[in-house]
Amino acid sequence: MKYSEFFxxxxxxxxxxxxxxxxxxxxxxxxxLGVRVPILRKLAKKFKDNLDDLFSFPNEYYExxxxxxxxVSLLPYAEFTKRVKDCVLLIDNWAHCDSFKAKCIRENxxxxxxxxxxxxxxxxxxxxRYVLVTLLNEYMKNEYLPLMERYICRADxxxxxxxxxxxxLTAEILVNYYDDGVxxxxxxxxxxxxxxxxxxxxxxxYRLTNEQKASLRSLKxxxxx
Length: 225
Known about the structure:
Oligomer: single chain
Number of strands: 0
Number of helices: 14
Structural class: mainly alpha
Mean pLDDT: 96
Largest sheet: none
Radius of gyration: 19 Å
Order of helices and strands: HHHHHHHHHHHHHH
Shape: globular
């Protein structure tokens, strides 16, 4: 498929009002056409077996990058790992990052650990966020709690989207493994703002009891202005 044909089809699904709404939520260097996610996911399936064409297209639009990430996420594990770093290099916003989920990781968690380390060690706001969000989505199991804690301790929470990812991951640990999450908070390894944000996000969950929430509120840190 030629790029002109691809773009005409993509543009045919664009909604101006949705583009304005999405632009307000998603700071990015990419132009936003306003194509809704269910349509993009359907289009991505068309390109899963023709990635060379898709990756030859320019990255001018948010939707084009979304299609590239989504098409790669549908690949078998061995092929996915060959392209994952190039995909993360395209990410400059939370929406691309958080939607880039590959089901193949779940069946290859141990094998994927060196890839996570390589990506995290690369550095950068969205490399770190991608790893943290992947841990949240694919590794929320008791045996991986020490691993998650190590990445939490290493994360550069001075960067906003890493700060938010650490808070989100910590909140999910609290919700799924409450006692372990409280132990993590009590170690004092999180910056104060991230510590409090994690508690705030955990308090929003319906999966914690009122007693647990009351106890969490007592762990909030008063930040001096």
